[in-house]
């Protein structure tokens, strides 16, 4: 079954530096690290020690609350270090890769002969189950409660987002197998964009026999899995849905059942206005970024390196490691060295504005394919100020939720009000665009995350 859902709210931000459809080759130095913070809601318990030998697919740490949820090493090698921060918080587990890789063999499986519990057990054993998230709370899910449905978003529409249609080429059977496995657990929905090429690919693969297809016709954040859930099967109190907003996770699952091995390779877009030659590169989860970023931009410039996209990614450095759900490494100007005389009063033909306070909107032609592209920097351009009920959140939030009222309820700690306003349906990334357009300069994603964490503790 295929449904077309038209969204009337949102905002597409056209930035310079989108990755060209070509792959660059990297030779890694062999340093990898798995970061527990990439898995929201997980309290890690490290199950290896420095000097231990591991294979690709062996567990490096488990979820302390649900020890059966393991997190697999992306490579075989020697555990070099368990890095800890304040109060001995586990920051990452570093592994030095072997020259010749070895894998834990979990055995090929015939998904057609498996039930949902067998699929879950296979994902738990291989250390891939923790890559699946859930609503409510937008955290890494657990196997104790089965979902009413599973949602997969195969649409990436954030600024400079990696093209999943390009990534999936040559891996179509892994994607089909991943969807088939998920459909054994619960009713599965796959969200797509209006691009006819991707729709054709999905239909040719026969995905419709395993999942319902929903085509979302609208601007960013139509690709957010939370937005898709809101329009197809909203989450009520007491209900749980599993979500995969990163479609590469489906490839991870498919490879496991097709090969019997854990293969955490993903296609990453190196993008941003500061990148000399934006392109794609195949990397493993947790792979060092220093090789990728060594000669990719002008080191004399003040830049912001982002592990992810410009709306939801985390700042990092050359010494960082590829995130578990990261499909882009973005490099943009930091902006701390900008010197604009009378900047606020000039017409600003080269800067982006949502509310047309700059004259740059006059340069946008009518055809969306030729929209002007901007080189935005990382500046906030103003300090935090009082919240004005102007409806600006609602214009970019295509959900049946009063965003401004929900944020106020979270700030004031009114849990009953939060529940009434639909906090169980949202995740922090749903407010990324609202944070971008917010004239009050509030950190909306942080506020929503704190609200969800408090609610989760209250309901535990």
Structural summary, described in words:
With 460 residues, the chain is of the alpha/beta class. It is globular and about 65 Å long. It has eleven helices and 20 strands. Helix 3 (172-183) packs across helix 6 (248-259). The strands form four sheets. It has a seven-stranded mixed sheet, with helices on both faces. A six-stranded mixed sheet has the order 2-17-16-20-18-19, with no helix packed on it. A four-stranded antiparallel sheet has the order 3-9-8-5, with no helix packed on it. 46% of the residues are buried.
Can you give me a brief rundown of this structure?
With 460 residues, this protein is α/β, with parallel strands linked by helices.
Task: Describe the global form.
Answer: globular
Low-confidence stretches: 365-369
How many angstroms separate the termini? 37 Å
Instruction: Give the radius of gyration.
Output: 22 Å
- State the total count of DSSP E strands: 20
Protein structure class: alpha/beta
Query: Mean pLDDT, rounded to whole units?
Result: 93
Largest sheet descriptor? 7 strands, mixed
* DSSP strand content: 15-25%
Q: Strand order, biggest sheet?
A: 1-14-13-12-15-10-11
Helix content estimate: 10-25%
Our count of helices gives 11
């Amino acid at each position: 079954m295929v449904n077309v859902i038209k969204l009337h709210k949102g905002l597409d931000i056209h930035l310079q530096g989108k990755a060209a459809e070509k792959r660059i080759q990297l030779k890694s130095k062999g340093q990898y690290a798995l970061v527990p913070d990439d898995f929201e809601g997980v309290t890690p318990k490290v199950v290896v020690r420095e000097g231990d030998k591991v294979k690709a697919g062996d567990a490096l740490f488990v979820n302390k609350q649900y020890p059966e949820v393991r997190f697999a090493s992306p490579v075989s090698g020697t555990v070099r270090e368990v890095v800890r921060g304040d109060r001995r918080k586990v920051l990452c587990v570093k592994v030095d890769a072997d020259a010749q890789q070895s894998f834990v063999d979990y055995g090929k499986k015939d998904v057609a002969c498996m039930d949902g519990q067998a699929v879950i057990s296979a994902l738990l054993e291989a250390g891939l189950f923790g890559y699946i998230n859930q609503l409510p709370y937008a955290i890494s899910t657990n196997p104790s409660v089965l979902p009413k449905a599973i949602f997969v978003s195969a649409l990436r529409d954030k600024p400079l987002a990696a093209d999943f249609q390009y990534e999936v080429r040559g891996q179509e059977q892994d994607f089909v197998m991943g969807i088939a496995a998920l459909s054994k657990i619960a009713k599965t929905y796959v969200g797509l964009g209006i691009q006819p090429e991707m729709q054709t690919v999905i239909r040719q693969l026969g995905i419709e026999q395993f999942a319902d297809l929903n085509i979302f016709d609208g601007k960013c954040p139509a690709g957010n899995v939370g937005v898709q859930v809101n329009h197809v099967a909203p989450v009520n109190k007491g209900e749980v849905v599993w979500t995969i907003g990163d479609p590469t996770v489906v490839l991870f699952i498919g490879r496991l059942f097709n090969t019997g091995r854990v293969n955490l390779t993903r296609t990453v877009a190196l993008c941003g206005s500061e990148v000399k030659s934006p392109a794609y590169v195949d990397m493993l989860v947790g792979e060092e970024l220093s090789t990728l970023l060594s000669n990719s931009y002008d080191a004399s410039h003040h830049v912001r390196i982002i592990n992810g996209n410009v709306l939801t990614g985390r700042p990092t450095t050359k010494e960082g490691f590829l995130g578990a759900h990261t499909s882009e490494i973005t490099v943009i100007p930091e902006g701390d060295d900008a010197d604009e005389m009378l900047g606020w009063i000039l017409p600003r033909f080269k800067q982006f504005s949502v509310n047309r306070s700059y004259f740059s909107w006059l340069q946008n032609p009518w055809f969306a394919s030729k929209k002007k592209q901007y080189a935005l920097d990382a500046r906030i351009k103003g300090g935090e100020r009082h919240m004005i009920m102007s409806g600006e959140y609602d214009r970019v939030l295509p959900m049946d939720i009063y965003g401004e009222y929900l944020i106020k309820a979270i700030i004031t700690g009114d849990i009953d009000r939060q529940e009434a306003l639909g906090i169980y349906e949202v995740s922090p990334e749903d407010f990324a665009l609202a944070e971008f357009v917010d004239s009050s300069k509030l950190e909306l994603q942080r506020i929503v995350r704190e609200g969800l964490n408090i609610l989760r503790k209250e309901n535990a």
